[in-house]
Amino acid sequence: MNEVIKVGMADLKICHSPAAITTLGLGSCVGICLRDPMTKVGGLAHIMLPDSSAFRTIEKVAKFADTGIDELVRLLEQNGASGRRLEAKIAGGAMMFAYNSTSATMRVGEKNVEATLKKLKELGIPVLAQDTGETFGRTIIYYPETGELKVRTVGKSEKTI
Amino acid sequence: MGDGINFSLEEMNEMYKDVLREIGNIGAGNATTALASLLGQKVDMSVPQVKLLEFDEIGELVGGEETVLAGIYLGVEGDIGGNMMFLLSIPSAKYLVSKLMMGMESPGEDFSEMERSALQEVGNIITGSYLNALASLTNMCIYPTVPDLNIDMAAALLSVPAIQYGALGDKILLIQTQFSGDKAIDGYFILIPNMDSYGKVLRALGILDSI
User: Fold this and answer.
1) N or C: at which end does chain B have fewer Cβ atoms within 10 angstroms?
2) Residue A140: closest CA among chain B residues belongs to which residue?
3) How confident is the model at residue B2 (pLDDT cuts 50, 70, 90)?
């Protein structure tokens, strides 16, 4: 069994193949997986909010899609990845509760996905696959060796994207 | 005046924690009584805990990130704002529903539409009695929004209040009460007031003025 590194909410980490990296029970948060397919270094950021620009002090960069992706890319480049080769897969951004579907809070999952895609596009990082939205939680495991992303949900069989 | 108090997490001293624990005690006490009378059986309640958690500690709060739970979530409105979550283990949710539907439950771990609406209604009654107790204690007007139900991984359910806190700071403050009964009834009440609501509640109880 190869090592599996765990990433918590509002956190990000990197790993080298053959290790894998995981985050458990993504709800409205988004899990952003990046890797360099050549050097097989990869990473995962578990972001909670779309945009850091309204905040003056940011202690946890991994809390936001924009700063989280920047930091993950920086860490990967520091560890042998080339920014030009990076590729992405993303999952999460569900709407877990809809007691007030017009409220901004309820739609935060959707906003997180939009912000993530926008930031990745800005950086020129292609999104090879995504499993986002809907109303259920997801556990994800990312393998920098192959770029496979396994998605586990309650009551359905595991899938690989 | 009125809304001016900025209550910061750093100012959380033991005295405030005691008061918040007492709120949990009274609210959850009333809710547990409501639950017991719905079920016609004894339900025990733990001493409420006031917790200030890092986001990555949330998963461990209710027995692991991937533990599947029935979660009922609603908004708290009126003089204070915030959210409340009522979490039930799957066997408890099944048992509750079968009690209410006189044994007509569906087999296995699945919940039918009717069972889901029964659960939602239970959530409505239970959380309503929690908030009623809090309202009469503080003399404030506090009412719940219509609740929504989801059955999923604990971390995914709790990500919603975590995100609401995430917009304000790097920690989440909550009042947690666990309950359990003779027959497979266990779960949690989690009250998550908005930051400015803490100040309002403390003042309504005469705590903030006296220090």
Assistant:
1) N
2) B66
3) very low
Closest C-alpha to B9, from B169, B176, B140, B202: B169
- Minimum mean pLDDT among A24-33, B126-135, B193-202: which range? B193-202
In this structure, which amino acid lies at residue B70? A
Q: Is the peptide bond before B147 cis (omega within 30 degrees of 0)?
A: no
Distance from CA of A58 to the nearest CA of B (A): 9
What domains are defined for chain A?
4-160 (3.30.1330.200)
Q: Give the angle subtended at the CA of B98 by the CAs of B96 and B104, to the nearest 5°.
A: 160
pTM above 0.80, yes or no: yes
Domain boundaries, position B168:
11-202
CB contact under 8 A, A25 and B73: no
The structure tokens listed for B52 are: 């200030």
SS (H, E, C) B52-89: EEEHHHHHHHCCCCCCEEEEEEEEEEECCCEEEEEEEE
The structural domain count of chain B equals 1
- Identify the CATH number of the domain in which residue B18 sits: 3.40.1550.10
A96: closest CA of chain B, how far (Å): 6
pLDDT in tens, B20-79: 788 888 888 888 888 888 878 888 877 778 888 888 888 777 788 899 999 999 888 888
Q: Which of A9, A52, A58 to mutate to test the interface with B (most CBs of B within 10 A)?
A: A9
